[in-house]
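Morning - guanosine-5'-diphosphate-alpha-D-mannose inputs below, output right after.
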Amino acid sequence: MERMKTALITGITGQDGSYLAEYLLQLGYRVVGLVRRSSTEPTERIEHLRARLELAQGDMLDPSSLLRVLDQFLPDEVYNLAAQSFVQTSFLEPVHTGEVTALGVTRLLEAVRRAVPRARFYQASSSEMFGQAAASPQRESTPFHPRSPYGVAKLYGHWITVNYRESYNLYCCSGILFNHESPRRGLEFVTRKISDGVARIAFGQADSLALGNLDARRDWGYAGDYVRAMHAMLQQKEPRDYVVGTGTTHSVRDLCALAFRHVGLDYRDFVVVDPRYYRPAEVDLLQADASAAREELGWKPELDFAGLVELMVDADLARRGHGARPVRGILPAGPA
Ligand code: NAP
Ligand code: GDD
């Protein structure tokens, strides 16, 4: 019988960490999650998995904690999902973002090199690195031009991963993932802000929704689909980097229209533009060319944009409404 593999996930309490943990457990892995100390319980997204997971305390800012955890669990695969991941916050906390999202990668790679040099390593790179992209759609060879401290930090994390692969012959991959969302997305990101805003408006808990740039376009997919690509990257013969996205692009305005329409409302009656949500520098358009991931990993997304928006709005309606009747619009057939 094949030995059970051990995977370490940093960022296990985040959106992707929770879906990846579910997926790896389903595949029969022993899953260990790195969790940083907090004065409140940050484990809401993995509560349903708690009995099947092992959690270890550590922080991307503290190299000794990373080495200790690797020495203790000797993982076969390491998924580095931990980051200060919100672009807007990176303009307010550029140094902290650099410490966690950029240098954190080097701290972890150094610990891997010392403790488990044969482990396979996944780095959560981002389409935000393309930023003001020179070409569309974006593929692995498209030049990078990040537009935020977060994007710059991710670019450092990306190149240090490539560098450790080339310098020390480690099996390291960067997944350049385009935006992916779910009902577990943080409330500050635009998809979830909109799905939650629709639910609050439908149940009379709010009268409007304040947003920033409605013309920005993103390639939005479903997080549950994207974690399959992360795992597949670590099962190849040779390590390399892959772009992962749906290949379709929509504006924030399209997203609003669809989300409000799902409950029979017109977004123009509720959405107000508030310059507070504009960014000092914006990424106008992202669209993936994920041909390499499709061809070499056999990866393809299962849920389309409309299905994703409906899933998220339905989940927030169920969470906010507790089965009550909406005071505005209609309750779609989905949530009971
Ligand atoms: P997320 O929900 O914001 O989760 C981030 C995770 O990082 C959380 O578990 C957080 O822990 C942890 N973390 C933050 N600072 C840490 C530190 N100093 N030490 C240890 N852990 C720390 O992000 P996500 O959407 O799941 O994304 C996962 C990764 O993919 C991130 O690296 C993100 O930048 C990248 N990415 C995401 C997308 C996307 O569209 N979702 C696209 C491309 C790349 P707490 O719970 O304690 O805060
Ligand atoms: N958050 C937010 N809030 N964004 C808004 C708003 C608002 O009120 N109004 C308009 N937007 C626009 C932003 O200006 C941006 O162009 C777009 O909506 C998407 O914003 P976010 O959902 O915050 O995501 P992001 O694209 O900046 O970053 C996400 O995707 C990256 C991959 O491309 C994050 O998950 C990053 O961690 C990830 O790397």
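Note: The pocket of guanosine-5'-diphosphate-alpha-D-mannose (ligand 2) is lined by residues 85, 87-88, 126-128, 178-179, 188-190, 193, 211-213, 216, 218, 252, 277, 279, 282-283, 286 (CB under 6 Å).

O.
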